[in-house]
Amino acid sequence: MSQTQEVPLNGAYYGPSIPPAQQPRPKRSRGCCVLSTFLKVMISIIVVLGIAALIFWLVVRPTEVKVYVVGAELKQFNLTNGNTLNYDLSMNITVRNPNRRIGLYYDQLDAIASYNRERFGWANLPRFYQGHKNTTDLHADFNGQHLMLLNTFEFNQDKNNGYFYIDVKLYSRIRFKIGAIKTRRVKPDIECHLRIPLVSNGTFSMFETTRCDVDF
Protein backbone atom coordinates (compact mmCIF):
# COMPACT_ATOMS: atom_id res chain seq x y z
CA MET A 1 0.00 0.00 0.00
CA SER A 2 1.39 3.30 -1.09
CA GLN A 3 1.85 6.14 1.35
CA THR A 4 1.04 9.82 0.60
CA GLN A 5 4.16 11.99 0.58
CA GLU A 6 3.79 15.16 2.63
CA VAL A 7 5.33 18.42 1.51
CA PRO A 8 7.43 20.04 4.21
CA LEU A 9 5.98 23.30 5.50
CA ASN A 10 9.26 25.08 5.11
CA GLY A 11 9.81 23.97 1.55
CA ALA A 12 9.40 26.00 -1.69
CA TYR A 13 5.83 26.59 -2.91
CA TYR A 14 5.04 26.83 -6.63
CA GLY A 15 1.25 27.19 -6.49
CA PRO A 16 -0.89 30.31 -7.20
CA SER A 17 0.06 33.50 -5.39
CA ILE A 18 -1.57 34.11 -2.04
CA PRO A 19 -2.95 37.69 -1.60
CA PRO A 20 -1.69 39.57 1.45
CA ALA A 21 -3.97 39.73 4.41
CA GLN A 22 -6.12 42.95 4.25
CA GLN A 23 -6.01 45.29 7.21
CA PRO A 24 -9.43 46.46 8.43
CA ARG A 25 -10.24 50.08 7.35
CA PRO A 26 -10.53 52.54 10.20
CA LYS A 27 -14.11 53.71 10.64
CA ARG A 28 -14.75 57.46 10.22
CA SER A 29 -16.32 58.94 13.26
CA ARG A 30 -19.81 60.38 12.94
CA GLY A 31 -18.66 63.65 14.49
CA CYS A 32 -16.06 64.14 11.76
CA CYS A 33 -18.70 63.82 9.03
CA VAL A 34 -21.01 66.28 10.76
CA LEU A 35 -18.20 68.82 11.19
CA SER A 36 -17.16 68.51 7.55
CA THR A 37 -20.75 69.04 6.36
CA PHE A 38 -21.16 72.03 8.68
CA LEU A 39 -17.98 73.67 7.36
CA LYS A 40 -19.10 73.18 3.76
CA VAL A 41 -22.48 74.75 4.49
CA MET A 42 -20.88 77.72 6.29
CA ILE A 43 -18.44 78.33 3.44
CA SER A 44 -21.31 78.24 0.94
CA ILE A 45 -23.31 80.75 2.99
CA ILE A 46 -20.32 83.10 3.28
CA VAL A 47 -19.70 82.94 -0.48
CA VAL A 48 -23.37 83.63 -1.26
CA LEU A 49 -23.49 86.57 1.18
CA GLY A 50 -20.27 87.98 -0.26
CA ILE A 51 -21.65 87.83 -3.80
CA ALA A 52 -24.94 89.43 -2.65
CA ALA A 53 -23.06 92.24 -0.88
CA LEU A 54 -20.96 92.88 -4.00
CA ILE A 55 -24.05 93.02 -6.22
CA PHE A 56 -25.76 95.37 -3.73
CA TRP A 57 -22.75 97.71 -3.69
CA LEU A 58 -22.48 97.72 -7.49
CA VAL A 59 -26.19 98.54 -7.87
CA VAL A 60 -26.69 101.00 -4.99
CA ARG A 61 -23.20 102.54 -4.73
CA PRO A 62 -23.70 103.90 -1.17
CA THR A 63 -21.89 107.19 -0.48
CA GLU A 64 -21.24 108.86 2.87
CA VAL A 65 -23.51 111.71 3.95
CA LYS A 66 -21.76 115.09 3.90
CA VAL A 67 -22.33 117.65 6.68
CA TYR A 68 -21.04 121.23 6.64
CA VAL A 69 -21.28 124.21 8.97
CA VAL A 70 -21.61 127.01 6.43
CA GLY A 71 -22.12 129.90 8.82
CA ALA A 72 -21.62 130.66 12.52
CA GLU A 73 -22.09 133.82 14.54
CA LEU A 74 -20.81 134.12 18.11
CA LYS A 75 -22.44 137.22 19.54
CA GLN A 76 -21.59 136.57 23.18
CA PHE A 77 -19.03 134.34 24.87
CA ASN A 78 -17.75 135.60 28.21
CA LEU A 79 -17.26 134.57 31.82
CA THR A 80 -18.88 136.18 34.82
CA ASN A 81 -18.07 135.41 38.47
CA GLY A 82 -15.13 133.38 37.20
CA ASN A 83 -17.09 130.25 36.27
CA THR A 84 -20.38 131.25 34.59
CA LEU A 85 -20.29 131.19 30.80
CA ASN A 86 -22.70 133.51 29.02
CA TYR A 87 -23.09 132.47 25.40
CA ASP A 88 -25.07 133.34 22.29
CA LEU A 89 -24.15 131.23 19.28
CA SER A 90 -26.07 130.58 16.08
CA MET A 91 -25.04 128.45 13.11
CA ASN A 92 -26.25 127.23 9.75
CA ILE A 93 -25.72 123.59 8.83
CA THR A 94 -26.18 121.81 5.51
CA VAL A 95 -26.69 118.07 5.23
CA ARG A 96 -26.08 116.53 1.80
CA ASN A 97 -27.32 113.11 0.67
CA PRO A 98 -25.26 112.32 -2.45
CA ASN A 99 -26.84 108.90 -3.07
CA ARG A 100 -28.96 108.18 -6.14
CA ARG A 101 -30.91 105.23 -4.71
CA ILE A 102 -30.86 105.77 -0.94
CA GLY A 103 -33.20 108.03 1.03
CA LEU A 104 -32.59 108.99 4.66
CA TYR A 105 -34.96 109.32 7.61
CA TYR A 106 -33.55 111.54 10.37
CA ASP A 107 -35.65 110.34 13.32
CA GLN A 108 -33.60 112.31 15.85
CA LEU A 109 -31.08 115.11 15.53
CA ASP A 110 -29.65 117.01 18.52
CA ALA A 111 -26.68 119.35 18.60
CA ILE A 112 -24.35 119.63 21.61
CA ALA A 113 -21.82 122.50 21.79
CA SER A 114 -18.59 122.19 23.80
CA TYR A 115 -15.65 124.43 24.61
CA ASN A 116 -12.38 123.04 25.90
CA ARG A 117 -14.06 119.58 26.19
CA GLU A 118 -16.82 121.00 28.45
CA ARG A 119 -20.42 121.02 27.24
CA PHE A 120 -22.29 124.30 27.52
CA GLY A 121 -25.20 124.29 25.05
CA TRP A 122 -27.85 122.04 23.50
CA ALA A 123 -30.19 122.52 20.54
CA ASN A 124 -32.91 120.28 19.15
CA LEU A 125 -33.12 120.10 15.35
CA PRO A 126 -36.25 119.04 13.41
CA ARG A 127 -36.84 115.53 12.13
CA PHE A 128 -36.99 115.17 8.37
CA TYR A 129 -36.79 112.83 5.39
CA GLN A 130 -34.09 113.47 2.82
CA GLY A 131 -34.54 112.22 -0.71
CA HIS A 132 -31.98 111.15 -3.30
CA LYS A 133 -29.21 113.66 -4.10
CA ASN A 134 -30.82 116.25 -1.85
CA THR A 135 -29.44 119.00 0.41
CA THR A 136 -31.20 120.10 3.61
CA ASP A 137 -30.48 123.39 5.40
CA LEU A 138 -30.68 123.46 9.21
CA HIS A 139 -30.32 126.20 11.80
CA ALA A 140 -29.19 125.80 15.42
CA ASP A 141 -29.24 128.37 18.23
CA PHE A 142 -27.34 128.11 21.50
CA ASN A 143 -27.88 130.80 24.11
CA GLY A 144 -27.97 131.02 27.88
CA GLN A 145 -25.70 130.55 30.89
CA HIS A 146 -23.77 127.52 32.09
CA LEU A 147 -21.46 126.86 35.05
CA MET A 148 -18.08 125.66 33.79
CA LEU A 149 -14.65 124.95 35.24
CA LEU A 150 -12.41 126.64 32.70
CA ASN A 151 -8.82 127.74 32.58
CA THR A 152 -9.33 131.52 32.67
CA PHE A 153 -5.88 132.16 31.22
CA GLU A 154 -6.63 130.08 28.09
CA PHE A 155 -10.10 131.58 27.84
CA ASN A 156 -8.79 135.15 27.97
CA GLN A 157 -6.07 134.28 25.48
CA ASP A 158 -8.68 133.02 22.98
CA LYS A 159 -10.79 136.10 23.64
CA ASN A 160 -7.85 138.40 22.93
CA ASN A 161 -7.19 136.50 19.70
CA GLY A 162 -10.78 137.22 18.68
CA TYR A 163 -11.98 133.65 18.11
CA PHE A 164 -12.85 130.47 20.03
CA TYR A 165 -12.42 126.78 19.16
CA ILE A 166 -15.85 125.25 19.68
CA ASP A 167 -16.86 121.65 18.98
CA VAL A 168 -20.40 120.78 17.95
CA LYS A 169 -21.49 117.15 17.95
CA LEU A 170 -24.68 116.00 16.24
CA TYR A 171 -26.43 113.08 17.92
CA SER A 172 -28.68 111.40 15.37
CA ARG A 173 -30.73 108.32 14.67
CA ILE A 174 -30.96 107.58 10.96
CA ARG A 175 -32.78 105.00 8.85
CA PHE A 176 -31.95 104.22 5.23
CA LYS A 177 -34.66 103.75 2.60
CA ILE A 178 -33.74 101.63 -0.41
CA GLY A 179 -36.75 101.18 -2.68
CA ALA A 180 -39.52 99.95 -0.38
CA ILE A 181 -37.07 98.66 2.23
CA LYS A 182 -36.31 100.63 5.41
CA THR A 183 -33.38 99.62 7.56
CA ARG A 184 -33.17 99.72 11.33
CA ARG A 185 -31.83 102.87 13.01
CA VAL A 186 -28.11 103.61 13.13
CA LYS A 187 -26.32 106.21 15.26
CA PRO A 188 -23.47 107.81 13.30
CA ASP A 189 -20.92 110.06 14.99
CA ILE A 190 -21.00 113.55 13.47
CA GLU A 191 -18.43 115.97 14.88
CA CYS A 192 -17.73 119.55 13.78
CA HIS A 193 -14.51 121.20 14.97
CA LEU A 194 -15.05 124.93 14.52
CA ARG A 195 -12.96 128.08 14.77
CA ILE A 196 -15.54 130.78 15.36
CA PRO A 197 -14.69 134.50 15.46
CA LEU A 198 -16.27 136.58 18.22
CA VAL A 199 -18.53 139.42 17.14
CA SER A 200 -17.36 142.50 19.05
CA ASN A 201 -18.48 146.15 18.94
CA GLY A 202 -20.89 145.41 16.13
CA THR A 203 -18.18 144.10 13.83
CA PHE A 204 -18.51 140.73 12.11
CA SER A 205 -15.66 138.45 11.06
CA MET A 206 -16.09 135.95 8.26
CA PHE A 207 -16.53 132.32 9.28
CA GLU A 208 -14.92 129.70 7.07
CA THR A 209 -17.17 126.86 5.96
CA THR A 210 -16.12 123.72 7.82
CA ARG A 211 -16.80 120.10 6.89
CA CYS A 212 -17.79 117.84 9.76
CA ASP A 213 -16.49 114.33 10.37
CA VAL A 214 -19.12 111.63 9.76
CA ASP A 215 -18.46 108.11 11.01
CA PHE A 216 -21.02 105.33 10.59
UniProtKB/TrEMBL annotation:
Which UniProt keywords are given for this protein, alphabetically ordered?
Membrane, Transmembrane, Transmembrane helix
The way it spans or sits in the membrane comes to: Single-pass membrane protein
Indicate yes or no for the key word Membrane: yes
Give the GO biological process terms: defense response to other organism
Give the superkingdom in one word.
Answer: Eukaryota
Task: Show the stretches that span the lipid bilayer.
Answer: 32-60
Q: Name one GO cellular component term.
A: plasma membrane
Late embryogenesis abundant protein LEA-2 subgroup domain location, by residue? 93-191
Subcellular location(s) of the protein? Membrane
Q: Does the keyword Ligase belong to this entry? A: no
PANTHER family (UniProt xref):
NDR1_HIN1-LIKE PROTEIN 3, OS05G0367900 PROTEIN
Q: What is this protein called?
A: NDR1/HIN1-like protein
**Whose protein is this, by species?**
Thalictrum thalictroides (Rue-anemone)
